[in-house]
Amino acid sequence: MAMVTVFRASISRSLPTSFPNLLSSSSNRNSIPKKHRLLCYAASSQTKTIRSEVSFCIGTHLIPHPKKVERGGEDAFLVSDYNGGVIAVADGVSGWAEQNVDPSLFPQELMANASCLVEDEEVNYDPQILIRKAHAATSAVGSATVIVAMLETNGTLKIANVGDCGLRAIRGDRIIFSTSPQEHYFDCPYQLSSEMVGQTYLDAVVSRVEVMEGDTIVMGSDGLFDNVFDHEIVSTVAGHGDVAAAGIS
Question: DSSP assignment, residue 232?
Fold first, then answer.
């Protein structure tokens, strides 16, 4: 899972602007292998300000591992403007390549299904239930770690996480909330799978954090948090006061 998927989402109050769900894998992204370039934000042309009240202003970037650029990497992500905003990352498990299975197919389908289910009545804007239904609808062979965050317009951020994708909530110069990775043992994270041996939505760590205007959410795969220390993330965020002004560096 040596790939970096990075969300930077600022909490803002803005005039309503709608845009369709954004679903992406890494197949059309370029590799940026240098460590100091691991933490990247989308340029203003890729950034959308969504809805009134409290909502996300989001920038995204995918950085495939240099050895996986040709096949596009193994991550997928989801952005939705529903309610206060929904962001999710799924990181495909590389070991499937040893069985001649493309590790990117499972996370791509998982995120595609989640995109279709964000507004589902049964999901009821619950990230854990979204994981359950998206997983049940996924038929591809493989497995993936996954994290989903849903922002209520009242400032409550709801998070469900299976595995070692992560999220940091930053206020000013400090981290006010951090997820913790779930692992069976080193380099073997919890994961949703097409096989019975994997985990389910019931294994997700579910969290709530109260955020406010001006806070920054950084979400990514283990490729980010395994290579960039938290204090480096905070200092990088501090150097870019607004997502819309941040460019890919």
Answer: H
Judge residue 36's burial from the number of C-beta atoms within 10 Å of its C-beta, 0-12 exposed, 13-18 middle, 19 or more buried.
exposed
Shortest CA distance to 39 belongs to which of 248, 214, 217? Answer: 248
Sorted by where each starts, the structural domains of the chain and their CATH numbers stand as: 4-245 (3.60.40.10)
131, two tokens: 């994981």
Mean per-residue pLDDT for 217-238? 94
Residue 221 CA to residue 228 CA, distance in Å, equals 11
| Burial (CB count <10 Å: 0-12, 13-18, 19+), residue 99 | exposed
Do residues 236 and 192 make contact, with C-beta atoms less than 8 angstroms apart?
A: no
Please tell me the pTM assigned to this model.
Answer: 0.80
Rg (CA), the chain: 16
Distances (CA, A) of 8 to 67, 93, 169, 184, 241: 25, 23, 10, 28, 11
